[in-house]
Design a protein that fits this description.
about 325 residues; alpha/beta; Rossmann fold; Methionyl-tRNA Fmet Formyltransferase, Chain A, domain 2; 2 domains; 8 helices; elongated
């Protein structure tokens, strides 16, 4: 049996799942995306990634300003969808929309539920230093990311992987997990397992001010911040009043155990190392001065004179 599917998704993360459905036996009747946003220096309106993918495939696109709008809801009803598939749409769906598809709506969620319900599951897993993450295919319910789960696929988080890199792993994984669940729903053989709500944790939206590095924290935690806040909002510090975005780091040994946190303890050649809390140290491998390109530690240090003993973040 082929299902008529309404696909709700907006960013790049959603495109592999859309492509997988297009390649399946099912019929994607429309794509619902958030409105186009201005981007770049010229602030020109750019189509969302899912809109661009849908247009290329000849699939109609709806971009409602308000998803509770009666005209939008009626447009979805008129499509007579069997199923809604949600992948990083970016808004909480009202019950009036969830009730339209005959088989309800399912979601590709980038965490091992019930851990990390919410808007930023990938970033929160990396920020926490977790050793693994994954993708859950779940039924969309009124409560945020609390519906029963059809399947979970797990992957390790390498110790130096960024959130952006993990999104690149999880997006195709979610796509691969999605189609078998849609097939099972179509055939009436899907199995749903309720979540253990007592184990639930939240993954709230990332705030821009989370990017400011607090050098009092241990080096491992700062390293996870640098990884976890890429590609946005990025981890940053200051040196002599100059804002510096820290792009790549490595936890390393602290030779001078009495060095105060936030002190540059090594600044020579490829070695730019800052003392952190708990008698730990962080080596900065790639750094980006405000308004300039990302550069290696060696490039950054060239021509800056002696920085050892200087303090960052003050």
């Amino acid at each position: 049996m082929s299902l008529r599917i309404v696909f709700l998704g907006t960013p790049d993360f959603a495109v592999p799942s859309f492509d997988a459905l297009i390649g399946s036996r099912h019929d994607v009747v429309t794509v619902v995306s958030q409105p186009d946003r201005p981007k770049g220096r010229g602030q020109q309106l750019q189509p969302t990634p899912t809109k661009a993918a849908a247009v290329a495939r000849g699939i109609p696109v709806i971009q409602p300003l308000k998803i509770r709008d009666d005209a939008f809801l009626q447009a979805i009803r008129d499509l007579r969808p069997d199923l809604g598939v949600v992948v990083a749409f970016g808004r909480i769906l009202p019950d009036s929309l969830l009730a339209i598809p005959r088989l309800g709506m399912i979601n590709v969620h980038a965490s091992i539920l019930p851990r990390y319900r919410g808007a930023a599951p990938i970033q929160r897993a990396v920020l926490a230093g977790d050793a693994e993450t994954g993708v859950s295919i779940m039924r969309v319910a009124s409560e945020l990311d609390a519906g029963p789960v059809f399947s979970i696929a797990r992957v390790p988080i390498p110790p130096d992987a960024t959130s952006g890199e993990m999104a690149g792993v999880l997006a195709p994984l979610g796509a691969a997990e999605l189609v078998p669940i849609v097939d099972a729903l179509a055939d009436g053989r899907a199995v749903e397992t309720p979540q253990d709500h007592a184990l639930a944790t939240l993954a709230p939206k990332i705030a821009k001010d989370e990017g400011i590095i607090d050098w009092i924290e241990p080096a491992a935690r700062i390293h996870d911040k640098v990884r976890g806040l890429q590609p946005w909002p990025l981890a940053s510090t200051t040196l002599n009043g100059e804002r510096l975005v820290v792009r790549r780091t490595r936890v390393t040994a602290l030779d001078a155990h009495d060095a105060a946190a936030a002190t540059i303890v090594r600044a020579q050649g490829d070695d730019l190392t800052v003392a952190c809390g708990g008698s730990t140290a962080l080596q900065i491998l790639h750094i980006q001065p405000e308004g300039r390109r990302t550069m290696s530690a060696r490039e950054f240090l060239a021509g800056r004179g002696t920085l050892e003993g200087a303090r960052v973040g003050t």
